[in-house]
Specification:
Shape of chain C: elongated
Chains: A alpha/beta (318), B alpha/beta (261), C mainly alpha (669)
Strand order of the largest sheet of chain A: 9-8-7-10-6-1-4-5-11
CATH architecture of the largest domain in chain C: Up-down Bundle
CATH class of the largest domain in chain C: Mainly Alpha
Number of strands of chain C: 8
CATH class of the largest domain in chain A: Alpha Beta
Radius of gyration of chain A: 22 Å
Strand content of chain C: under 5%
Helix content of chain A: 25-40%
Structural class of chain C: mainly alpha
Helix content of chain C: 55-70%
Largest interface: A-B, 94 and 86 residues
Order of helices and strands of chain A: EEEHEHEHEHEEEEEEEHEHEHEHEH
Oligomer: heterotrimer
Number of helices of chain A: 9
Strand content of chain A: 25-35%
CATH superfamily of the largest domain in chain A: HUPs
Largest sheet of chain A: 9 strands, mixed
Largest sheet of chain C: 4 strands, parallel
Number of helices of chain C: 30
Structural class of chain A: alpha/beta
Distance between the termini of chain C: 87 Å
Distance between the termini of chain A: 59 Å
Chain lengths: 318, 261, 669
């Protein structure tokens, strides 16, 4: 295994945690780990990466403030050709989904996405992924290849400690970028600001599709009130408009870390899990004993949430 | 505007209990349905052409039965459909599929190629962008809004943490569509019957001029793969007892861990 | 002197009258022509059969306003007076025309009685109009609207009637014929004229103004809501017509296209609002009104089919109105629970319920206006044969541990197919009904089986939601299975399945295989009458019975469940305010069980409020949807302390002393 190239991810001047998770996975594979950071001011973020990667290559250009795969690709392709890593790794995110297949396609490299586990077995990579909405797991063994491109599921690995590696850094100021296509970044749009920030709550009562409809939300709210908790939800509930998008927990919503996360009628598809798996205590209620949520929960109750809701509420004076 | 939408027929698993037989999914009790993300893409394409003229063409790769997914799209308002159907395609990885699609699509004169962000089965989220590379077209993923204009399309992309960004792509381009971009219309049985007589172009490997060795499992990057069910309740300590007992236990946990009275 | 009538007495320029009359009649003819050409554009899915209702009843409805009396004595009286007053005067005018142009017969004694008769009619008309205005403006009756034409019309007609009397009064004052007292009203009024000369001078003015107002009225007649005078008799004649065969393949055009019957119904509507008064959705405060729905449908029909709206300058107005209505319809379409309360009380059988079906069929075909939850439900129905879970084979779970013959496979012959139904087979609360029923049937020695996992959906939900293609598919699948297994005797748990299998399935059968379809309450009733069902476990409880809409109104099964309840020793049956044919809908029909409408619980809560008022300890029902809706409302409405909800099947099982091992839900009772 001759090294891993990690593509760092940042947004609005802040390095994303997912990049560090990739470093954790990369270091665990053994071998040289090199990180590429392309930004308008990479030096400002370099500090977080120092001590966590062997090589650190910083590329600066004003147009790199926001992500654009067309601007990244020429630089990344040059780096791949120069370093010949066995693996190019990046987070499976809105950026990764835009970049990884493009890189793999242009260089004709094998591509595995949304991996929960990566290991090297002497000649090739073995990969674990979740499939069918989290209801099954896939084990893949790849054929030997010079370089493989992979994206890592958020939260699949831990960030490495600072000092896990000794970092040699080098900076390059790019004078011109050579995009193949004229894709332009226009602007960021902030989500609708709402009254409640679920990320601040200590206790979250979270409802999923199992709540059935907007009419049943008040019942869940009643429990939340009894517990002094805030109401949140999974994607289908926000998509259906039963609760505002600001209440959505998950990759495309908010990541939360409350003391208690009470999941009611949430199946626990990966995108949701990613948003709450680091909560202090997770209690899940679902009538399906095989719901993926039970893999990430600390305590599970297999029951009809409408039977549990009132009974819990009454135990807290609701 | 001439729009191509790639669609896929996948098993509907949301409420089903999966059975794995020797590392593969047992499809017997499962219904095949259009991939949810692709459905959003078809709806978006039809809306664009309803608003400003043009045509929507559909393309799928699958077995004979998978033709259903094309009929459904036609019933939604698409104008034509093609079906890539050949045993040689089985076992292909996304890179190979991208080559197959590219061969089928070349020369089609499409302004916009849409597909879903990922498919509900294996969820690799790669085919769309890989196809863009094969065709040498610009791309963008995770679209939650599309504004086609003269010679370019403005794509609003969904990012993490409740934010999004707008990017402009010159046309022709490939865009992958995220769920929630619109509310897909209902397809009635009557609607499907009405399009039953429409001819669907059948395409085989030979029609594309692709060598057999470059298709299927032989050309796949995967050496071996298998599926397994996640171990039940792993991680969660399942609370036992009758409803009241379980609620008492849950309440105790809430009090202790949540610092409640 | 021979009493006779002098036409055109005291006026000159008869030709002007004829001219105006010609214009008025032209307007009348144009209006009638427009209406008729509109009606006849309606597609005829099935030939209109001769009357299906007893002719006597139809005539009573048309000429005596029998159905109007049911809504109230004053309403019935008012309409009777108006109808006969106007009809009498109309016939009188015809007689006068005949007398004048053909054969003179209005002379002598006949003429005197004729005059007196017309006075009575005129008086009836005036009193009727005054009563109408009082009801609409002074009381006022809440369901009556106060739009401009609702007031203008009676006032105008009042002017016609009073004007007529005034003209007569003036003539009598001027001529003082010896028989004047026979025209007693005019005679009485004639005293107000200061002199014969004054009367004679005033007469032409009175005569011409009366003529113009009357002719104006005649011209306006077909264009106003009084067109119902023509459409309502036709509508009443056509009541009870057999359901049209709804073969989807044959309907090339829009499924939403209206038939002749529908178009007649639309014009028969008198805007009386009795449908609004009984509509559960409207009364629960939802933004839905069956009257407004018909109004929009009427306007749409006019805009689409009327020959006049082909004129270019009316066409643009047409587009704008169509758009506005469309949006309103999109929102309103899904509120109806298809409970049929509207049809029960409509004096002209105008049936908003039929319009809903057409409207929904159109929306389903177009696709964009179907609410996502209903889309989901329809898709589940299509793929999995049930609206609840996206899983195959979900319908057999309730029977675990019971040895019930599976009639989908070949095996021993049984007498009856017990058609469980999607909801009863899958919903955890409703499953208890199936268990209770199978226990009761076994106890009574009924030989029965089910279709197990293979039970298809009967097609009712698709039917109510307007997905005709799906309904047809489901009916064909069901019939294919029944045919294959030679099953023609069916017992249904749900009144919804009963309705569709009994009334719609036969329309799709090729050979008229006679299906004998019963609701389970009918079966139990039969068993009880035969002495095979004896309730020997007293239940000293005060109960009230909630008639499911589909049992009571759609299928007229009101007595059987009550007789069964009364047969249970110790049981005291009290009735809610709206019971029997007037039962108040629980809100679960019309696809609403699978559609989350904000505030929807209110329908069922309103029903339970009526239940609470009876002081009953148990609310008994006979439909799985009612059971679920009422159970939910019991919790959300806070009635837990007041009563429990139980199904008739469960109650029967208890009254038979059948052990309730896997029927836990009853234990809560």
């Amino acid at each position: 295994m001759s090294g891993v190239l990690v593509i760092a991810e940042h947004r609005q001047g802040v390095l994303r945690e997912a990049t560090l998770e990739c470093l954790g996975a990369a270091l665990a594979l053994g071998g040289q780990v090199t990180t590429l950071l392309l930004a308008d001011d990479p030096e400002a973020m370099a500090g977080e990466l120092t001590g966590r990667t062997h090589g650190l290559k910083l590329y600066a250009h004003p147009d790199l403030a926001a992500f654009n795969p067309e601007l990244y690709l020429p630089v990344v392709i040059d780096a791949v050709k120069a370093l010949q890593p066995s693996l190019v790794l990046m987070p499976h995110s809105s950026q990764g989904m835009d970049l990884a297949p493009a890189l793999a396609g242009r260089l004709g490299l094998p591509l595995v996405t949304d991996c929960t586990g990566l290991s090297w077995n002497d000649r090739s990579f073995a990969v674990q992924r979740t499939v069918y909405g989290g209801k099954a797991m896939q084990e893949l063994t790849l054929k030997p290849a010079a370089t493989v491109v992979a994206t890592l599921q958020a939260g699949a690995c831990q960030a490495p400690e600072v000092g896990a590696a000794e970092t040699a850094s080098e900076s390059t100021t790019l004078t011109e970028l050579a995009p193949r296509h004229a894709r332009r970044f226009l602007e960021y749009l902030a989500g609708v600001v709402e009254d409640v920030d679920i990320a601040e709550a200590d206790i979250l009562v979270s409802v999923g599709r199992g709540i059935g409809g907007p009419d049943n939300i008040p019942q869940a709210q009643a429990l939340a009130d009894a517990l002094g908790a805030t109401l949140s939800c999974s994607r289908p509930v926000a998509d259906a408009g039963w609760l505002p998008k600001s209440r959505q927990v998950g990759t495309s919503g908010k990541t939360v870390r409350p003391k208690i996360y009470l999941a009611l009628g949430i199946s626990g598809a990966f995108q949701h899990q990613a948003g709450m798996k680091n909560s202090g205590t997770i209690i899940a209620v679902n009538s399906d004993s095989r719901a993926p949520i039970f893999q990430v929960a600390h305590y599970g109750i297999v029951a009809d949430l409408f039977e549990v809701l009132p009974k819990l509420a009454e135990r807290f004076g609701g | 505007m001439k729009i191509l939408v790639l669609v896929k027929n996948v098993p509907e698993v949301a409420e089903a209990e999966l059975e794995i037989d020797q590392g593969a999914l047992d499809l017997e009790d499962l219904e095949m349905v259009v991939n949810e993300w692709d459905n959003y893409a078809v709806e978006e394409a039809v809306r664009i052409t309803e608003a400003s003229g043009g045509e929507v063409h559909l393309l799928t790769l699958g077995s004979e039965d998978d033709e259903d997914v094309l009929r459904r799209g036609l019933a939604m308002g698409a104008h034509a459909a093609s079906h890539l159907c050949d045993e040689a395609f089985e076992g292909s990885d996304p890179a190979t599929l991208a080559k197959v699609f590219a061969a089928a699509v070349k020369g089609g004169g499409y302004d916009l190629i849409l597909t879903g962000v990922q498919s509900a089965d294996l969820g690799q989220a790669s085919t769309g962008v890989l196809l863009a590379q094969e065709l040498g077209l610009p791309h963008a993923t995770m679209a939650i809004a599309l504004e086609p204009g003269a010679g370019e399309v403005v794509v609003t992309r969904e990012l993490e943490n409740n934010t999004s960004e707008k990017v402009a792509l010159p046309l022709p381009a490939v865009v992958t569509v995220q769920s929630g971009i619109n509310q897909p219309r209902y397809v009635s049985i009557m609607g499907i019957r009405k399009v039953r007589k429409m001819t669907i172009e059948q395409i085989e490997a030979a029609d594309l001029g692709l060598a057999e060795e470059s298709l299927g499992a032989a050309a796949s990057m995967v050496d071996s793969q298998s599926l397994a069910l996640p171990p039940m309740g792993q991680g969660a300590q399942m609370l036992q007892g009758g409803l009241d007992s379980v609620c008492d236990q849950a309440a105790a946990i809430l009090r202790e861990k949540g610092g409640l009275a | 002197m021979n009493p006779l009538r002098t036409p055109f007495w005291g006026v000159e320029w008869a030709w002007l009258f004829y001219l105006l009359a010609a214009l008025a009649l032209a307007a009348l003819a144009l209006g009638l022509w427009e209406k008729i050409s509109l009606w006849t554009q309606g597609r005829r899915a099935a030939p209109v059969a001769s009357h299906k209702h007893p002719l006597g009843a139809i005539l009573a409805d048309v000429f005596l306003g029998r159905r109007i009396w049911r809504g109230g004595v004053t309403a019935g009286l008012m309409h009777l007076m108006l109808l006969w007053g106007f009809l009498g005067l109309f016939l009188g005018t015809c007689a006068v025309a005949v007398d004048h142009y053909l054969i003179s017969f209005l002379q002598g004694r006949l003429y005197l009685w004729f005059s007196a008769g017309l006075e009575v009619c005129g008086l009836l008309l005036v009193l009727g109009l005054l009563l109408a205005l009082t009801r609409r403006w002074l009381l006022p009756v809440p369901r009556l609207e106060r739009r401009p034409d609702d007031t203008l019309l009676p006032l105008w007609l009042l002017a016609v009637a009073c004007g007529g009397f005034m003209v007569e009064a003036a003539r009598l004052a001027a001529t003082r014929p010896p028989w004047e007292a026979w025209s007693f009203v005019g005679y009485g009024l004639s005293g107000f004229f200061p002199s014969a000369q004054a009367a004679r001078d005033l007469f032409p003015w009175l005569w011409w103004s009366h003529a113009i107002i009357s002719l104006g009225f005649i011209a306006w007649l077909p264009w106003s809501k009084l067109a119902h005078a023509f459409a309502a008799p036709a509508s009443l004649y056509l009541q009870g017509q057999p359901l049209a065969v709804l073969a989807v393949a044959a309907e090339e055009g829009e499924l939403a296209a209206l038939g002749l019957r529908h178009l007649l119904h639309l014009d028969a509507c008198t805007r009386c609002g009795r449908c609004v008064e009984v509509c559960p959705a409207a009364q629960a405060g939802e933004p839905f009104s069956p009257r407004d729905l018909l109004r929009r449908a009427r306007r749409q029909a006019r805009l689409k089919y009327s020959p006049l709206y082909r004129l270019p300058w009316l066409r643009d107005r047409r587009q704008a109105l169509l758009e506005r209505d469309r949006t309103a319809d999109w929102e309103a379409a899904w509120y109806c629970t298809t409970c049929r309360a509207c049809l029960e009380v409509c004096p002209v059988q105008a049936a908003p319920i039929e319009m809903i079906r057409k409207l929904r069929a159109g929306l389903v075909e177009q696709g964009s206006a179907v609410p996502p939850q209903l889309m989901d439900t329809l898709e589940k129905l299509h793929r999995y044969g049930n609206p609840w879970v996206a899983k195959k084979g979900a319908k057999a779970g309730w029977a675990q541990g019971r040895d019930i013959p599976d009639l989908s496979k070949s095996g021993p012959e049984v007498d009856w197919l017990y058609f469980v139904g999607c909801t009863t087979a899958i919903d955890t609360r409703a499953q208890n009904m199936a268990r209770a029923l199978s226990d009761v049937f076994t106890h009574c020695g009924v030989s029965f089986g089910t279709l197990g996992k293979k039970e298809p959906c009967c097609g009712d939900i698709a039917r109510r939601l307007g997905e005709q293609g799906l309904m047809e598919e489901q009916i064909e699948a069901t019939q294919a299975l029944l045919n294959q297994r030679d099953l023609t005797r069916i017992i249904c748990t749900s009144p919804h399945c009963l309705d569709t299998i009994k009334k719609v399935h036969p329309l799709f059968l090729e050979e008229g295989l006679p299906l004998q379809v019963l609701h389970y309450s009918q079966m139990l009733h039969r068993l009880w009458q035969q002495g095979r069902l004896i309730f020997d476990h007293p239940l000293p409880l005060k109960v009230t019975y909630h008639d499911p809409c589909f049992l009571a109104r759609h299928n007229r099964l009101v007595d059987e469940p009550r007789q069964l309840l009364r047969a249970i020793p110790g049981l005291e049956l009290v009735e809610m305010a709206d019971h029997g044919l007037n039962s108040l809908c629980c809100g679960g029909g019309g696809g609403r069980m699978w559609h989350e409408i904000p505030g929807q619980a209110n329908l069922a809560v309103r029903r339970l409020e009526q239940a609470a008022a009876t002081g009953a300890e148990l609310v008994v029902t006979a439909c799985p949807l009612c059971l679920i809706m009422l159970e939910d409302a019991r919790k959300t409405g806070g009635f837990e302390d007041k009563f429990a909800i139980i199904d008739l099947s469960e109650l029967a099982a208890r009254a038979l002393g059948l052990a309730a091992t896997d029927r836990e839900a009853e234990a809560n009772v």
